[in-house]
Amino acid sequence: MGVLHRICNTPYRPVWQLNSKVPQELSQVIDRLLEKNPSKRVASALAVRETLTRILANVQSGRPAIGNA
Predict the structure, then answer these.
(1) What pLDDT was estimated at residue 69?
(2) CA–CA separation, 43 vs 31, rounded Å?
């Protein structure tokens, strides 16, 4: 029960705290995917795919990541 309580109520460690090389925009996507409040999560898998595609294109071209996930 303790583990279940922690999963439901305790915020996780953000990815950028574990690895500072992760682009901020990607960290924001992960934050939204792990959001405990369903209304704050990403609306669809298509939206995630489009955002990840844009982030990948920015990383590969050397452009800085901008915008929100």
Answers:
(1) 42
(2) 13
- Show the DSSP H helices in the chain as ranges: 2-9, 15-18, 24-33, 45-61
Contact between 33 and 42 under an 8 Å Cβ cutoff? The reply is yes
- Cα–Cα dist 2/17, whole Å: 24
Q: Could you tell me what percent of the chain has a pLDDT over 90? A: 45
pLDDT band of 65, cuts 50, 70, 90: low
Sign of the CA dihedral with 18 first, then 24, 29, and 32 last: positive
**What tokens does 14 get?**
């953000």
pTM of the model: 0.72
